[in-house]
Structure formats: C-alpha cells, structure tokens
Write a structure and sequence with these properties.
single chain, 15 strands, 482 residues, Jelly Rolls, 5-stranded mixed β-sheet, 3 domains, 51% helix, alpha+beta, Heat Shock Protein 90
Length: 482
C-alpha cells in the first residue's frame, strides 16, 4: 500500500514492494549494536532506510531517545534536505541492516517514482511542523516559568505584610472591645470580669472553628435562638450562629443568668451583643490572616515546585516535591478527588533537578484527575526499589487506558483529548525528564486502576549505567515494530 502525502503518521513505513523499488538507488550496510550511522559532527548527505534491526535517534548532547525507527522506516531526510548540520545522532539499537541512499540518487528516485518521493517529502514536512510545534511549546513553558517566578516573588512580600496586619488588627480590635467593656456602667465590676474571662477563653484558645455537620449546626443554632428569645435578646436569629461557632450553647450561657452576679434580661442582651461583636471582629481578622497565609503557602509551594534560586541539580526530597505538586493542584483535587498518601519512612533524597521532577508529578497527577473526570481516588506512593532506586507510584481508579492505545501514550503529539484540550506533549515530556535523570517510567492499566511507576536512581553516578538499561528496555518494548 502506497502512503499518500496526506498520510498523518509521523513515521510512515515502506512496504516490501516499495523497499524493492528503493534498493537499486542505495547501498546496503551493516551496523553492529551501538554503532552510529551518523552524529551531530558528521556531514549527512544520505537517507537511511532500516531494513533489519532498529535505529534510535537522540538529541545533540543528550542521551535520551527522541525517536525509534524499526524496519521499514527511514531517517536523515530532514537534515539532508534542509542543508543544515544535524542536531541529532542515529545509533543502531540492534545489529542492523541499513539501506543508504545518497542525496543525488534520491533526486533520480523522486523523478522516476514520484509516489515514493512523496512519502519522503510529506514526512519531512510533517516532522518539521511538529518540531516547530514542540519548540513553540517549550518557549511557552519557559515564558510561563519566568512569569510564575516573578509573580511568586511579587506576591510574597504583600502577602506577608497583610498577614502581619491581620494579626495586629485582631489584637487592636480586642483591646478596643475590652476597653469599652471596662467602661461600660451597665455591668458591675464582677460582671465585667466574668464577661472578660469568657471572651478571653473564646478568643485566646484554639482559633480552629468548631466544625459540625450541617444538621447538628442547624439544631444548635435553633436551640440557642430559642434560649436567646426567651431571655429577651433582640436579633437572636443573627446572633446565634456566631455564638454556636465559638462553641457556646444554652448550658454555658445559663451561667450568666445564675448566681450572685447574674445578669437581668436587659444587661444580658447588652453583654451578649458585646460578646458577639467581639467574636465577629476576631473571626474576620482570623479569616484575613488565614487567606493571606494561604497565599504565602501557595508562594512557598510554587518556589519549592519550580526550585527558584537553586542550582539545577541538587539533593531532592521526593516527598516534598509530591506535596508541593498536590498543593499547586489543590483546586482540581478538592472538587471530588480523595488523595491517599503512602510515603515510605526514611526514604533517601536523590540527586536531581527538582523543578523538572515536579513537572513529572504535575503531568501524572493532572492526567489522573482528568482520567477520573475530577471524581475518584488518587493514590500517591513512594518506596525504595532495591538499594539504588526510589520508586514513585501515582495511581487512579479511572476507567483505564484502552489496550489499543497503551503502547502509544508516550509518543510525541499523541493525545486522546479533544481539539484544543491537549498537545500530546505531556507524557512525552515526562518520559524525557525521567530518562534524563537516568530513570525509567512504565504504566500498568486495567479497568478501574491505572498506575504510572517512576523509578529514579538515588546516586547521580549511576545515570550512565541506567541509560543502558533504559535503552535495552525500550528495545524489548518495541521489538514488535510499530
């Protein structure tokens, strides 16, 4: 079957019939495993068609594999036709037999067999478009990173100042209320002291609101409203929620109406009005402080997430990175995702680029939430895998990955999301980052459970060894072609 120019596959394959047509235009060469067809230092003036074996393409100066060519696929056409130096290197992953077609012979081939020439040309056009799209995406991410860093820095100072101001506002409001009580002639000195003690108990203790389920909250408010109305307190319906939130009930308020220093209804209404106003002032100041504290927490998480002002490679606590990521994505998780954490005790730090690893966790968690449609259970687990590696597992209880696309999910530009919803670069970036750290990633998926497992070396010196393991693993995973 002839591939037409409209063929949308990134790496189309020639059929046996097409390879037979190509054969007279080139020379067959054999390459041992690990031998390079060309590197970034070579002048490439030929096309390379894989007849047997497998060829891996990696970027200039990097070890990570960006493309794999099984039998029937070809490489070299991009640099050959562009007339520029190669930014990639091609290496035989297995003992391979390659058809090398010189550029001059290709011109004759294209004129005699235009359909085969179209396969080369259309593939070149697609690869150039997709390379440009990938570069644009990288530029956008870099710009977004700079913007985020600047925004985090600018937010930190005013957020800290607002938090300090909220604390000062709380203290000054309480001082003003206590001063007003001290000069309130409606109460005896003993009654003022009793009210002041109650106020301090409620405002200087734990600032965590009393959390009740909605039904219990409503019942307590109704009960206290009835008590207040029975004692002649106006606006009882508005005052009751504030007193209940502070932990007061009818039994506690009975103490104000009993004993030698008991308050009559008129004095009781004034006392509870003063107490309610004081509690509201303290609560509002606490809310301002908690809100600005949340901003500071997000800024801290952003700094940890992006590892601002830190060297590219350093000792990284995987658990801290995961927690920073979960904080950043809290807006998506709180809609209906229950997070289960299972962190191994005493897990060693690893030598890594923390910001890049957090990109991995973000993509995996974000994809898991999308897979569950925003509602389900997300499990984040860390453990030590043998003596030299850390294992991170991110598991969701979504519908799973269909078997027919499971082998393609790490391909660049492959996405199952709708138009405009995904670039298809997320998992490709994840794979590149993990491999750049000398690690490996795999996915296990069945209906109701999908688990991405990231295995990372603890010691940076093991990266070279792990790269070999990764490439061999990739060879086995792709040995069926495709």
């Amino acid at each position: 079957m002839m591939h037409q120019p409209g063929d949308t596959r990134v790496f189309p394959k020639f059929t046996k019939e097409q390879l037979a047509v190509l054969s007279p235009y080139g020379t067959e060469r054999e390459y041992a495993e690990g031998e390079y067809l060309f590197t970034e230092n070579d002048i490439v003036d030929s096309f390379y068609v894989v007849l047997e074996g497998k060829v891996l393409i990696s970027r200039k100066g990097e070890n990570e594999t960006v493309a794999t060519h099984p039998p029937g696929e070809f490489t070299g056409q991009l640099v050959n036709l562009s007339g520029k130096g190669s930014r990639h290197r091609a290496r035989a992953a297995l003992p391979s037999r390659i058809l090398e077609i010189p550029a001059g012979s290709f011109q004759n081939l294209a004129s005699v067999n235009p359909e085969i020439g179209d396969v080369f040309i259309s593939t070149l056009a697609r690869r150039m478009r997709q390379s440009q799209a990938w570069l644009r995406q990288q530029e956008k991410m870099a710009a977004l990173g700079k913007l985020s860093a600047g925004l985090a820095h600018e937010l930190n100072n005013p957020a800290a100042a607002a938090r300090r101001a909220a604390e000062d506002l709380r203290e000054e409001s309480l001082k003003a209320q206590r001063s007003a009580l001290a000069h309130d002639e409606r109460f005896t000195p003993a009654q003022r002291e009793h009210l002041a003690d109650l106020e301090r108990e409620l405002t200087e203790g734990s600032r965590t609101p009393v959390l009740l389920d909605p039904l219990e909250q409503s019942d307590r408010e109704d009960e206290l409203t009835d008590w207040l109305e029975d004692h002649g307190v106006e606006d009882a319906f508005e005052l009751a929620p504030t007193l209940v939130a502070a932990g007061l009930d009818a039994e506690r308020l009975d103490a104000l109406t009993e004993g030698p220093e008991s308050l009559n209804n008129e004095a009781l209404a004034g006392a509870l009005g003063w107490l309610g106003a004081t509690l509201i002032l303290a609560t509002l100041a606490d809310e301002v402080g908690q809100s600005t504290g949340r901003i500071s927490e997000l800024v801290r998480a952003m700094k940890e997430y992006s590892h601002m002002d830190k060297t590219a490679t350093r000792e990284v606590d995987v658990r801290e990175g995961l927690e920073s990521t979960l904080t950043i994505l809290a807006h998506k998780l709180k809609k209906g995702v229950a997070v289960e954490r299972e962190y191994a005790e005493g897990l060693p730090k690893i030598c890594a680029h923390g910001g890049e690893l957090n990109q991995v966790w973000t993509n995996l968690v974000d994809n898991a939430v999308d897979a569950m449609d925003g509602c389900g259970k997300l499990k984040v687990k860390t453990s030590r895998d043998g003596g030299e590696h850390v294992l991170v597992e991110i598991t969701d209880d979504g519908p799973g990955i269909p078997r027919q696309i499971k082998s393609r999910i790490f391909e660049p530009f492959f996405t199952t999301k709708g138009v405009g919803e995904g670039t298809g670069l997320g998992l490709d970036i994840v794979r590149r980052i993990v491999r750049g750290h000398g690690g490996e990633i795999r996915v296990d998926s069945t209906p109701g459970e999908t688990s991405f497992k990231v295995r990372l070396p603890i010691d940076e010196s093991r990266r070279g060894l792990d790269d070999k393991v990764i490439n061999e693993s990739e060879i086995e995973a792709n040995s069926d072609g495709g």
